[in-house]
Amino acid sequence: MTRKQRRLTLIGSALAVLAVAAGLILYNLTKTITFFKTPTELAEEGFKPGMRLRIGGLVKEGTLQRGPNQTVHFEVTDTNRSVPVTYQGLLPDLFREGQGVVADGALQPSGEFKADSVLAKHDEKYMPKEVAEALKQQGMWQHTGDKAKEAAPNAAPAAAKPGA
Amino acid sequence: MRRPQPRSRGPDAMVVEVGHYALVLALALSLVLTFIPAWGAHTRDSALMGVARPAAFAMLGFAALAFLALTIAYVDSDFSVLNVVQNSHSSKPLAYKISGVWSNHEGSMLLWVTILALFAGLVAWRGAHMPQRLLAYVLSVQGAIAAAFFLFILLTSNPFARVMPAPFEGEGLNPILQDPGLAIHPPLLYLGYVGFSVAFSFAVGALLEGRIDAVWARFVRPWTLLAWAFLTLGIAMGSYWAYYELGWGGWWFWDPVENASLMPWLAGTALIHSIVVMEKRDALKVWTILLSILAFSLSLIGTFLVRSGVLTSVHSFASDPTRGVFILGILIFFIGGGLTLFAWRAPVLRQGGLFAPISREGALVLNNLFLSAACAAVFIGTLYPLGLEALTGGKISVGAPFFEATFLPLTVPLLLLVPVGQSLAWKRGDLLGVAQRLAAAFALALAGAIVVFAVTRRGPVAAPLGIGLGLWLILGSASEIFNRSHRAGASLAVVLRRAAGLPRSAWGTALAHAGLGVTVIGIAATAWGVERLATMKAGESLDLGPYQVTLEAVVPRNGPDYRETAALLAIRDGDRLVGRVEPGKRTFTGRSMPTSEAGLLTVGLGQVYASVAEIEAGGSVGVRLYWKPWVLFIWLGAVVMAAGGVLSLSDRRARVGAPVRRAAPAAVPAE
């Protein structure tokens, strides 16, 4: 092999690997990212059932129902609108009515949100960032009372994600 | 030193002041170390350059003193120190009082900078035979990084801040951090992260000096290997901790904080391979310099991600934005500075030669390509949501599906090529010869995969394939050692003697690659895992893979600083009792929310994993049960990899240290 051929082989293989990597990254990004929506946005923007989304808000008081096999139903609210959620599995330790949650999943044709993972505040001081911001946007920050105020300077959350 | 009462005043109260003062002195020394040796190297003034080593030792001494003072404050439960109040409690066991020092933002930054000073001290200690100018530049850069972090600690995160009046009792340590795994995870991880600063400093030193050669690679290689081995252990420890402590049953979640440690690991892995090419073949110089800068830059980015609170993640305990901005400033200064210097000075460096594509060095280039691409994929997946939110306000999340779909196609081909690259000769490899030498290993790995497939015919296909890949890595390494020791007609004794006589770096490489194979087997076996969700009453049983699990009772019990409701589960194989697990829900003193404590039973290399979801009225509990065959292979492989790194580190050519070629120049007295 001449010097030139060697150089070309090197550069060619480098470009090939990088092109494959770039293609994989772009393709998978468009395919797998999920958007974060509040219940109000969910209701107003209109999403097709089956599209993967992440929703966040507070677990509405009085809506938590436990079914068989650790199935739970509850509503997530941003105090303006709310969306019914079903989930089967282990809820995070800090899951409570009136507390902030973030859920990943997809809307069902019935309008129910089927979650495959639920994240909650993992420490009494913290609240998921998305929830804190969504509540601020809604102007509902004060509404959530002392706990939220305590959380305000510490918007960094900790998550519990049952199942992987 | 220890007295029964927690106290805030007394003769030892001075300790905190001494610690604070030591930190200020360490900052002053780091500034001396930054400017004087660098100026000396620039003007070729040997006396000024001579300041480097003593200043590095003194900086280490004062940083260690500050760290010791904070540790004493924790051990003594000195609640006049705010940091101790917030993160400790006088009833904590001694081990968690000590680990409490680095369980929080301030203390962990102090640990970070103390380890940085430790590496500066070690470089100074081992550097007696190094060319004086290079050593002066290297230690100056270490000093500059240390100065930035000392300033950061003193200005935004002072662990010695007092509280007045001193409370009688502390708030306690976050219970999920009270764990032996997490006690040693940060020190290991930081030894890895911060260890890459040495490669960074050497790269900047080489750029400033305008000169780089194989000898440079020989100086850098041991430090990089050391950092890499610690980082490997640190990541494995963190992964095992998340596995058993968070109660989710998974071992890797592609959480941004996990990615933050994976990125420097990938870049560092590329670096330890490219340094070898530079050392042996005097090639890939500019690329190695760039990788050295990038590996530490990714460590700094990892520190930023974890410490600034920009992430939505389990690890983000720090949350003050002013700190985030300060670390971002440090980040931009060192990464930007390093890369600018690289762009400006790299053309000055003499380029190495080109080489044949089919050769050991060609294979190592391929290794670097795949690792860099994988690292870039993780980088983009981790930072894209942050960037998008900063630019457009849109909130998205990039989760495990992205990383799995991107990372696997970029790493599996690399794993397939590892045994081939390992067997290729330097300069001009012979693919046919390699194929002959590896035929047995390949056939055995294939046979292994087929046997596994035949035995578990209804199971997932990915598992036998992954196990075949793991076997290929292990057998490929074994065959490399065998081929290097075996000669036609040699007796077993001769082969063994020759194998023992192989350089330790050859054994280290083989061991690390085999460790990778072990991890791959563990990951592949997760496909056979069984998961059950159930609500059980006392006396009920259910099947879990090969076992039957019975809930015997639900009992309350108390620990030293918590109350617990535990589910007692018996695991049987037919009539034989295999063991018991006792997962529970704990409520710690001073915390209102309960935490889950998983129950683990190790059977061979597999584990039964149980966690309690919900204690329900009427004595029934919601439980999540897993059977995870061979799961311990995942972390065991990482330990073997790190052992390979350390073995390679102890190679003669690293220990001797003083290369003949460059020790002689007249202008460089060896101090």
**CATH topology value of the largest domain in chain A:** OB fold (Dihydrolipoamide Acetyltransferase, E2P)
The largest interface is:
A-B, 53 and 64 residues
Number of distinct beta strands of chain A: 7
For this structure, the CATH topology of the domain at 1-173 in chain B is Four Helix Bundle (Hemerythrin (Met), subunit A)
Please report the distance between the alpha carbons of the first and last residues of chain A: 50 Å
* Order of neighbouring strands in the sheet with most strands of chain A: 2-4-5-7-6
What's the multimeric state? heterodimer
* Count of alpha/pi helices of chain A: 4
What does this structure look like?
- The complex is a heterodimer of chains A (164) and B (671).
- By secondary structure, chain A is an alpha+beta fold.
- Chain A is 32% helix and 27% strand.
- Chain A has 2 domains: 1-32; 35-154, OB fold (Dihydrolipoamide Acetyltransferase, E2P) (Beta Barrel), CATH 2.40.50.
- The N and C termini of chain A lie far apart (50 Å).
- Chain A contains 4 helices and 7 strands; from the N terminus they run H-E-H-E-E-E-E-E-E-H-H.
- Chain B has 671 residues and is of the alpha+beta class.
- Chain B has helices at 14-43, 46-49, 52-75, 82-87, 94-99, 105-126, 132-156, 180-209, 214-245, 256-281, 285-308, 321-345, 360-392, 400-423, 431-455, 462-485, 492-501, 504-525, 632-649, 652-656, 660-663, and strands at residues 396-397, 530-536, 541-544, 547-558, 562-573, 576-581, 584-588, 595-597, 599-603, 606-615, 621-628.
- In chain B, strands 3, 4, 5, 6, 7 and 8 form a 6-stranded antiparallel beta sheet that branches. A 4-stranded antiparallel beta sheet of chain B has the order 2-11-10-9, with no helix packed on it.
- Chains A and B meet through helix 1 and strand 1 of A and helix 13, strand 1, helix 14, strand 2 and strand 10 of B.
